[in-house]
């Protein structure tokens, strides 16, 4: 997980940031997850990798005029999510949210209500986020 989510993102940023800087800025979009902030027993490794990717995204925002945007969402209807019987976002909806957010200069795009709620819960007592700890 870390090879793809963290180190893959780091390699991508290192490769493209100088090109973007030479061309006056541009944007890098990192697709993260609601699991950057919360985890479940079956997703611990994935969540840890996404949390590291979130931290990396926040750390690479450089002074070179390149916009670095973090996109957080729950589940989109993609091949990766086919085995999960949960509500899923239409990928076209996600793409529109990303394009609109980048155009507005957003540094972080929270695509759905579950993600907005998860981010807000970061300031809460952990027992609110993980009721099993109560």
From TrEMBL:
InterPro entries on file: NAD(P)-bd_dom_sf (IPR036291), SDR_fam (IPR002347)
Gene3D superfamilies in alphabetical order: NAD(P)-binding Rossmann-like Domain
The UniProt record lists the keyword Acyltransferase: no
One Pfam assignment: adh_short
The entry's keywords: Oxidoreductase
Family: Belongs to the short-chain dehydrogenases/reductases (SDR) family.
Entry protein name: SDR family NAD(P)-dependent oxidoreductase
Lineage of the organism: Bacteria, Bacillati, Actinomycetota, Actinomycetes, Micromonosporales
């Amino acid at each position: 997980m870390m090879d793809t989510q963290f180190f893959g993102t780091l390699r991508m940023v290192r490769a493209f940031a100088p090109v973007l800087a030479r061309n006056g800025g541009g944007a890098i979009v990192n697709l993260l997850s609601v699991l950057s902030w919360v985890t479940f027993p079956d997703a611990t490794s994935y969540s840890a990798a996404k949390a590291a990717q979130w931290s990396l995204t926040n750390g690479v925002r450089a002074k070179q005029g390149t916009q670095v945007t973090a996109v957080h969402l729950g589940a989109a209807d993609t091949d990766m999510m086919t085995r999960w019987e949960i509500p899923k976002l239409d990928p076209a909806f996600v793409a529109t949210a990303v394009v609109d957010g980048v155009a507005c200069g957003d540094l972080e795009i929270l695509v759905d209500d579950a993600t907005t709620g998860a981010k807000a819960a970061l300031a809460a007592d952990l027992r609110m986020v993980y009721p099993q700890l109560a």
